[in-house]
TrEMBL record:
<dbReference type="Pfam" id="PF01047">
    <property type="entry name" value="MarR"/>
</dbReference>
<dbReference type="InterPro" id="IPR039422">
    <property type="entry name" value="MarR/SlyA-like"/>
</dbReference>
<dbReference type="InterPro" id="IPR036388">
    <property type="entry name" value="WH-like_DNA-bd_sf"/>
</dbReference>
<keyword id="KW-0804">Transcription</keyword>
<dbReference type="InterPro" id="IPR000835">
    <property type="entry name" value="HTH_MarR-typ"/>
</dbReference>
<protein>
    <submittedName>
        <fullName>MarR family transcriptional regulator</fullName>
    </submittedName>
</protein>
<dbReference type="InterPro" id="IPR036390">
    <property type="entry name" value="WH_DNA-bd_sf"/>
</dbReference>
<keyword id="KW-0238">DNA-binding</keyword>
<feature type="domain" description="HTH marR-type">
    <location>
        <begin position="1"/>
        <end position="145"/>
    </location>
</feature>
<keyword id="KW-0805">Transcription regulation</keyword>
Length: 152
C-alpha cells in the first residue's frame, strides 16, 4: 500500500477523482452513459426542467466544460436518443438543446444512481449531512474558487 499521507493535495484529489469517475462509469454503464455524458445530461435536465432551452455555449458555461467538448458529448447523447438539438432561429451560430422523453427518463434514473453512489462514497466521512462532509465540501469549494481565481 502506498503512503498516501505523504501525497500532495493535488495528487490526492487527482486519484480520488479518477476513482470517482470510474465508479460513475460503472454505475451508469447499463443506462448507456459515461461519466462525461452524465456531466452534460444531468445539468441539461435541470435546465430543461426549469423551462430553459440552453445553447451548447450556455451549457458549457453551466458545466465548466469547454464548448468543443460539450459539442462532442451532445453529439454522442443525440446518437443515443437522449438529446435533441436545433439551430437557434435568432442566432444561426447557436444550437439549442432539449431532452427527448428517453433523455428525461434516463437523466432521472442516472441522477438517482449518482446520488446513491455519492452517499456510498462519502459514508466513510459520516455520510450526507455530517460535519465532516460539510467541511470537505467547504474545502473543495475553496480550492475550486482558488483555481478559478488563478485562471483569470
Amino acid at each position: 500500500m502506498q503512503d498516501r499521507e505523504s501525497w500532495t493535495t493535488g495528487a490526492l484529489v487527482w486519484h480520488l477523482s479518477l476513482r470517482w469517475r470510474a465508479g460513475v462509469d460503472r454505475a451508469l454503464a447499463h443506462l448507456g452513459l459515461t461519466h462525461a455524458q452524465y456531466s452534460v445530461l444531468a445539468p441539461l435536465h435541470s435546465l430543461v426542467r426549469a423551462g430553459e432551452s440552453p445553447s451548447q455555449r450556455e451549457l458549457a458555461e453551466q458545466t465548466g466544460l469547454q464548448p468543443i467538448y460539450i459539442s462532442k458529448l451532445v453529439r454522442a447523447l443525440e446518437r443515443s436518443g437522449f438529446v435533441s438539438s436545433e439551430r437557434d432561429t435568432r442566432d444561426a451560430r447557436a444550437v439549442r438543446l432539449d431532452l427527448t422523453k428517453e433523455g428525461h427518463r434516463t437523466a432521472l434514473q442516472a441522477k438517482e444512481i449518482v446520488r446513491q453512489l455519492d452517499h456510498e462514497n462519502t459514508h466513510a466521512l459520516g455520510g450526507e449531512g455530517g460535519r465532516e462532509i460539510a467541511e470537505l465540501h467547504r474545502a473543495l469549494v475553496a480550492l475550486l474558487d482558488a483555481t478559478d481565481a488563478a485562471d483569470e
